[in-house]
Amino acid sequence: MAKTRLTITLDQDILKRVDSAIDGSKIRNRSHAIEYLLTSCLIPQSTKVLILAGGEGVKFRPLTDTLPKSLLPIKGKPLLEHTLLFLKEQGLTEIYISVAHLGKKIKDYFGDGARFGIRIKYIEQTIARNGTAQPVLQAKDFFSDEPFLVIYGDVLTKLNFLDLLDFHNSHRGIATMALASVEKPSMWGVATMEGNRIKDFVEKPQTKTRSHLINAGIYVLSPEVFKYIGSNSVRLEKDVFPRLAREGKLYAYPFESEWYDVSTPQIYTEVIKGF
């Protein structure tokens, strides 16, 4: 994102409060603190979040025969609770959770979100088909008025969601994909960038790729995206994002924050040790 240098004058007490926000990791310096605090104020607090938590967690069976993957325990809390609390920290409290497999257990645990300081509504997946496209399309009536954040229920991250939203709003594209960097990208969808756009997106490429930037399972989508999701679309990664990339309407948001895709028992073990 293009930056503009400014000179500003602040009251000493305000400057002390700005400096108190600097933690050396999420907020690195005074300039970043001012940008972060302004972004927090300017991003509409009504920004809605859609979490896709309907997956069956096949690789975790037999555990996920009785427990949804999003409720797998990590440091004393379900995986999904970590995400919800981090969203709350950033002022994102209007949450919609798309549920299917053992969805009642998710609803019983989180309820309406009041005890977590957030508001939760649930969307029951009505199409018995694996994939990410139909749950998003099914949520159309709730997300038709402004860009919204989409997070996969098995993703654990400390990403600055407000900065991601700010980036998306600055270019007014149809979709922005958060990109993590990994050594072996072939397990995920791989993105090739040109400027701040994704010029090519391939889900689990069969041939070696130069890019190490992969789909982090976190997006900001504008309502126009629903025009790209048909009734036969199965996966955003195969049926929607490649087309958006070809049309120059898929933007990239590379980030370096902590990120895990809790998609296998091996990664789950790593998360328990390191998150």
From TrEMBL:
Kindly give the InterPro entries that the UniProt entry links to this protein: Arc_rbn_hlx_hlx, Mannose-1P_guanyltransferase, NTP_transferase_dom, Nucleotide-diphossugar_trans
Query: What CDD domains is this protein classified in?
Result: NTP_transferase (cd04181), RHH_NikR_HicB-like (cd22231)
Q: Which SUPFAM superfamilies match?
A: Nucleotide-diphospho-sugar transferases
Report the record's Gene Ontology biological process terms.
Answer: regulation of DNA-templated transcription
Q: Name one Pfam family in it.
A: NTP_transferase
- Residue span, Nucleotidyl transferase domain: 48-271
Q: Which PANTHER family match?
A: SUGAR-1-PHOSPHATE GUANYL TRANSFERASE (PTHR22572)
Record's protein name: Nucleotidyl transferase domain-containing protein
- In which organism is this protein found? Candidatus Doudnabacteria bacterium RIFCSPHIGHO2_01_FULL_46_14
